[in-house]
Amino acid sequence: MRPISRNGVRIDDSFAEAFPMRGTAILITAPNRRWAMQAATTMTGFATSVIGCGAEAGIDHEVSEKSTPDGRPGVRVLLFSMSSDTLQTQLVNRVGQCVLTSPGSACFADLHGTDRLQIGDAIRYFGDGWQISKKFGNRHFWRVPVMDGEFLCEATTGLTKNAVGGGNLLLMGADPKNTMRAAELAVDAMNEVEGVVLPFPGGVVRSGSKVGSKYKMMMASTNDAYCPTLRGAVATSLDDDIGCVLEIVIDGLTEKAVADAMRAGLAAVIELGPDNGAVRVGAGNYGGKLGPFHFHLKDLLP
User: Mean pLDDT of residues grouped by 10 in the chain (302 residues)?
Assistant: First the structure.
C-alpha cells in the first residue's frame, strides 16, 4: 500500500476494521478519589479482550464531586461485550465482586436509553431480605446493608447496541524505546476523548493477533506479519527500519467516538515525529470481512 507522509511519519493507506458491540456505562462514587478509582480499577481488571475475558472494559474519565448524584468523587466506567446477555452477566459479576465490596462505594447508571441492564435489581439479593427499594423522581435505587453502612446502587443502567469495538492503530518504530514513547503520547491524547476506552494494559498491546492458527484450539494467534523477529521467515509487513510494533485498540460507545480517538492518537504521533517516535503508522484489518466499520487513516489525519 502506498504510504502517506506527515511530518516525516509514514501513514499507511489502510484502515482499521471494527465491529458492532453492546456497551454500557456506570458511575462509581466513593468517599474520596482514591477509593472511587480503586473500585473502578478493580472492576475493569482482566477485561482486555472478549477473546479470553468475556468483556472489554476501562475507565472513561473521572467525575468531579460537583457533578455526581451524591456529591462525592466519581469515576465513569465503560463495559463492552459481543451480546446483551454476556454484557449483563459481566456487569453484575463485576459490580457485585468489585464495587459492592469496595469501602464506601455507590453505583449509578450513566447511560441513557430505553434498553436497560440490571445492576441493583440483581445485586439487591445480597441484602438477604434487608434491602430497601427507594425512588427519587424517575430513578430507582436499592439500599443494601453492608458492614460499613449501605451500598446504594441504581436498579438499572442503559444499554447501547450501537457500540463499536476494534478500532486500532499500529505504531511502528525503530526500537522499543521510541515506539513506546509514541504509544504513550497517543494513549494520553486518546484518553481525553469521552466515550472510549483502551482496554489493554496502559492502553497498549504488544501481542497483536491475526484470526485463526495452525492449532485448531486457537481462534487467534500472533500477528506474524508484524513480528520483527520473524522477518525473513514469513511474508512480513515491516520495512527494514522497523524494529518494534505496538498496537492501541479502541472501544467506543459510538462510531464517532472511536474515530475521534484515532484522530487524536494519530495527531500526537505525527507531532512527535519519527526521530523520537514512530516512523510509520498502520491499522489492522481483515480485508473488510470482519466488521462493517472501516476507519481509513487518510481520513483521520490532521
Answer: 86 96 98 98 97 96 98 98 98 98 98 97 98 96 98 98 97 98 98 98 95 91 96 96 98 98 98 98 87 96 95
**Pairing, β 15-29 against β 293-296:** antiparallel
Which is nearest to 117 in space by CA: 166, 55, 70, 168? 55
Helix (H) or strand (E) holding 91: helix 84-94
CA–CA separation, 302 and 176 (whole Å): 25
* Whole-angstrom distance, CA of residue 101 vs CA of residue 252: 27
- DSSP H or E segment with residue 255: helix 255-272
* Whether 199 contacts 49, CB under 8 Å: yes
Cβ–Cβ under 8 Å, residues 134 and 143: yes
pTM beyond 0.85:
yes
Give the three cell numbers for residue 190.
486518546
* Separation CA 158–CA 143 (nearest Å): 20
Task: Report the distance separating Cα 181 and Cα 204, nearest Å.
Answer: 11
Round the CA-based radius of gyration of the chain to a whole number and report it.
21
Provide the 10 A C-beta neighbour count for residue 298: 11
